[in-house]
Amino acid sequence: MSGGQPLLEVDGLKKHFPIRSGVLGGVSAHVYAVDGVSFDIRRGETLSLVGESGCGKSTVGKSILRLIEPTAGEVRLDGQRIDNLPAGQLRPLRRRVQVVFQDPFSSLNPRMRVRDILAEPLRNFGLATGHGETEDRVASLMDKVRLPRDAIGRFPHEFSGGQRQRIGIARALAPGADLIICDEAVSALDVSVKAQIVNLLSDLQDELGLALLFISHDLAIVEHLTHRVAVMYLGKIVELAERSTLFARSHHPYTRALLSAVPVPDPEAQRQRIILTGDVPSPINPPSGCRFHTRCPFVFDRCRVEEPLLRPVGKAGHISACHLEHAPGGEVVPQPNA
Ligand code: SF4
Description:
The protein is of the alpha/beta class. Helix content is 29%, strand content 24%. The protein contains eleven helices and 14 strands. The protein has helices at 57-65, 91-96, 104-107, 114-124, 131-144, 161-173, 191-208, 219-222, 243-249, 253-260, 301-305; strands at 8-21, 26-41, 46-50, 72-77, 80-81, 97-100, 179-183, 211-216, 228-233, 236-242, 311-312, 319-320, 324-326, 332-334.
């Protein structure tokens, strides 16, 4: 992982989806799917974006990729704005930022052989000319994702789920991407296959210096892969920290609840399970003050009226949006005023 200027900077990103109703289709409300999200990713770094389904994490990924247009905020790649690039100038973005989706079966053309699936981006970006060079590059991609070279003549349905995800990763690598957005990329796989794909991504990162934005609802999986973790709730990041800090000394009650559900490898050790009550509120009408206050076991008066801002807590780089202070003994102390 390198220092210096981040590879990707996301600053105040918002995506509000209008809800239209009535005969004239006027905008009657908005879904505040992403509501002011900021983070950066360095070269060779993995940042995981975690949270329950519907928290806006996949919308963040799609907004960076310009698969949907952000409502507000800035996204920069190597310092250059990419959120406002005209459609005709998106080619460098498409080459440098790639995505691996959850369901490799639906994201791979079932009528194309693996050879053609991998050759397509090479040709589109002018990275291989002529049959021989293309075949060599395709064979090398198969090696990288540890699939047999002689499988290039097969169709996607002839592979297992894990193998199909390897093809998806090879396709993302083909244009020489700097950043791969893995959107629930291992969520649909069996436990052992998940671990294999996570190991593969980790090895590829070491080998190629890739940056990864790993979007997942599963904290247990990101623990083995990530450098930092950003936790999202209802369209906002509520906590961000280095992996070891987040897993050992999380601050936000929502993060603590998510962590309490992560199995501990040592059968003697126990984490006290925090069961969250109530449903995730609607992003159309998010709660006042702290968005988590309707489910938080530590809620107090201030939480209902004043939105907590992300602020440094504990170690450098650890930020959390919560009005609680943690006393040295680990107990939480409400802070009634700023
Ligand atoms: Fe809970 Fe209040 Fe902290 Fe929100 S600000 S997480 S409601 S203690």
